[in-house]
Automatic annotation (TrEMBL):
Provenance organism: Flavobacterium collinsii
Name of the protein in question: Dihydroorotase
One GO molecular-function entry: allantoinase activity
Entry EC number(s): 3.5.2.3
Keyword Hydrolase recorded: yes
EC category name: hydrolase
Length: 418
């Protein structure tokens, strides 16, 4: 298959064509030619959009699809289609299915389900059996099957010795450990950030300390053991300060932040709308500002949608009993452009590949064609019509967003949203 991409502005700081508007000729999944005016060729598909921009394919380090077991929330097939039309050429799948992805056969199952799609799926294996936090799962077998990291989704490891052993064990095969950070005892029955808003609304609070204490402990363990540690969806100012200090020491620690923590605050809880019930909880404006600054100064390595489809019957409930989670693939790019510069957004949507050991392809002749098509131009309101996921639990419904995602080219497959 041959494709000509017309008048695309390249956003790739590692490419010799960065910030240049060019044509690209793609042949059999590789970049054959980049130039200012490529002549028409017979039997080619032409890609042309208004104000077209092109970057390396985006990567989301945390998505949940449900399958196997929770196909009513989302299937792998539809989830990958949603990811492609949202601009993501690769996603890391969380193990929170039923059964949990905690062995080689489960890794093989989801990889086989994802075969043949434009968006590549990289499984995260559970760190502990059934994600129960008791016994370490079959990490090496899952690594051989294709797992890119190991962690229990939205569950902290209470047993410090178990985490210590895991960090030591994975070093034999260069494994990456993911540790969600929230002390369950300090969290208690909390449902919202502990502060002025939770007090005013009468909601049980989750103190920032519940996250920060776990971060401090896990970083001490990392310093003791060595190895590689990823801390997902950080949410407080103190957390990023602790991670910045650990990086200055030379520890191999990375972290991500969810889109909703960069854009929204706990002020959104005024109407008790469960779309805004997420974990960790939405924090205050001081924390949100600190997170944005940490993105800009490089302390935060990547941004994730933390896409988590939830059945409507588990969201349309009283705030205290509703499940945590929001979908986020469709709104990620447009929401981020409202708070961050374009080049920062693109950097943080691509940098995570290197942390998870996934190949990144610079935009240059001879490289693999792994692109995201988009424009930063224009504003719109995010509505239900923009949601392609089976579940509709989006925290960004009704929000003003910027830009448009046009689609992706990857695996010699072109997927467009228009």
């Amino acid at each position: 298959m041959k494709i000509i991409i017309r008048s695309a502005k390249i956003i790739d700081s590692k490419s010799p064509f960065h910030n240049q508007t060019v044509d690209l000729l793609i042949a059999d999944g590789l970049i054959e030619k980049i130039g200012t005016s490529i002549l028409d060729i017979e039997d080619t598909t032409e890609v042309k959009f208004d104000h077209l921009h092109l970057s390396q394919g985006w990567f989301d380090s945390s998505v949940s699809f449900g399958e196997p077991g929770y196909e009513d929330r989302e299937t792998i097939a539809n989830g990958l289609n949603v990811a492609a039309k949202s601009g993501f050429t690769a996603v890391a799948l969380q193990p929170n299915s039923f059964p949990v992805i905690d062995n080689q056969s489960q890794v093989n199952f989801v990889k086989n389900k994802a075969a043949g799609f434009a968006t590549e799926l990289f499984p995260i294996g559970a760190l502990t059996k059934a994600s129960e936090g008791k016994d370490m799962a079959e990490l090496f077998d899952m690594k051989k099957a294709g797992a890119v990291a190991f962690g229990d989704y939205n569950k902290s490891i209470d047993n410090a010795n178990l985490l210590k052993i895991a960090l030591q064990y994975v070093q034999d095969f260069d494994g990456l450990v993911i540790t969600y950070v929230q002390d369950p005892n300090l969290k208690g029955n909390g449902v919202a950030n502990e502060g002025i808003v939770s007090t005013r609304l009468g909601l049980k609070g989750i103190p920032a300390l519940a996250e920060e204490l776990q971060v401090a402990r896990n970083l001490f363990l990392l310093e003791y053991t060595g190895g590689k540690l990823h801390i997902p969806t950080v949410s407080t100012a103190k957390t990023v300060a602790l991670i910045k200090e650990a990086k200055a020491k030379g520890l191999q620690v990375s972290c991500s932040v969810a889109v909703h923590h960069l854009v929204l605050t706990d002020e959104k809880l005024e109407e008790f709308d469960t779309r805004f019930k997420v974990t960790p909880p939405l924090r205050n404006e001081t924390d949100r500002t600190a997170l944005l600054n940490a993105v800009l100064d490089g302390t935060i390595d990547m941004i994730t949608s933390d896409h988590n489809p939830i059945d409507i019957e588990f969201k349309k409930m009283e705030f205290d009993t509703a499940k945590n989670g929001t979908i986020g693939l469709e709104s990620a790019f447009g929401a981020l452009l409202t708070v961050l510069p374009l080049e920062t957004v693109i950097e943080k949507l691509t940098l995570g590949k290197s942390v998870f050991g996934i190949q990144n392809n610079t935009i240059a002749e001879g490289s693999k064609a792994n692109f995201t098509f988009f424009t930063p131009e224009g504003k719109s309101t995010f509505t239900k019509e923009n949601i392609l996921s089976k579940s509709k639990n989006s925290a960004f419904l009704g929000a003003e967003i910027k830009g448009t995602v046009y689609g992706i080219l990857n695996q010699n497959k072109l997927v467009t949203s228009k």
